[in-house]
Amino acid sequence: MTFAETANISADLVARLRGARRVVALTGAGISAESGIPTFRDAMTGLWARFRPEELATPEAYMRDPKLVWEWYAWRRARVEQAEPNPGHRALVELEARVPDFLLVTQNVDGLHARAGSRRIAELHGNIMRTKCFDCDRVAGELEQWGDAVPPSCRHCGGMLRPDVVWFGEMLPAEALGEAMRASTISDVFLSVGTSTVVEPAASLPFYALRGGAVVIEVNPDPTPLTPHASFSLRGPAATVLPELVAAVFPEGR
Q: Which positions are catalytic?
């Protein structure tokens, strides 16, 4: 028996998603965890267990000990490189191919959505696989071109390079956040996938969608603050639920 047969993938849900012209999917740590990437706080293991994330993921921490922070992110980046997109990521790629206006909004920094094939992505918290200058904010080139210095230096201004992620105390990228807010407000269907719906401003996006009249579908193993407000709640891991949902909506395939 498939998930679609045992879960609340109703005919109404299928019809709403099949007829949608504008769809937004918001993803959080849950979908990445299914690819073996630990959540932000779970990443504090091994040599890093004695630290708290707040001690390393701030501009002040980087200024205080740039080598330490750089090496923690290098360790995290190596773990991300070993991970692969899972069926949940690929189901969102399939959905994007079927919807006229689709935006993927992610709180994850691992880049797995792009590796899976998603095209239109708003990365609210940046991307750990990119690097930028701490001083001039220019995005840097590939790691192997930087030399052996830890941390490496910007070729434009000589400043220290840093991960292109949003640290505590920093603003989210205005362009990505603005695109996410606009798309959520006018969406027909909003998918909330693997996110706790407690971290702002991303937590407000499904409520923008609800106020605009959208159908909100939550995919999560556990209830969240969004659950009582969602139009449909599908309990289970994204790697199981999303492929079943997309198959139910588009049974003929591409």
A: 125
How far is residue 34's CA from residue 22's CA, in Å, rounded to a whole number?
27
Q: Using CA atoms, how far apart are residues 170 and 24, in angstroms rounded to an integer? A: 25
Residue corresponding to tokens 């360790």:
75
Identify which of 108, 112, 107, 75 has the alpha carbon closest to the alpha carbon of residue 91.
112
Structure tokens at 32: 């990445």
- With beta carbons less than 8 A apart as the criterion, state whether 87 and 242 touch: yes
| Spatial separation of the C-alpha atoms in residues 63 and 73, rounded to whole Å | 15
Angle between helix axes 238-249 and 87-98 (nearest 10 degrees) is 30
What are the pLDDT digits (tens) for 222-237? 999 999 999 999 999 9
Structure confidence at residue 133 (pLDDT): 93
Which residue has 């792009």 as its token pair? 114
pLDDT tens profile 21-80: 999 999 999 999 999 887 766 655 655 566 777 778 999 999 999 999 999 998 889 889
Nearest Cα neighbor of 212 from 28, 11, 14, 22 is 22
Structure tokens at 35: 């690819």
Specify the pTM: 0.90
Please give the full DSSP string across 149-178, using - where no structure is assigned.
-SS-B-TTT-PBEEEEEPPTTPPPPHHHHH
Take residue 33 and report the two structure tokens written for it.
Answer: 């965890």
Cβ-based neighbours of 72, under 8 Å, separated by 6 or more: 48, 51, 56
Considering all CA atoms of the chain, what is the largest pairwise distance in Å, rounded to the nearest integer? 60
Residue in 135, 132, 98, 84 with CA at minimum distance from that of residue 22: 98
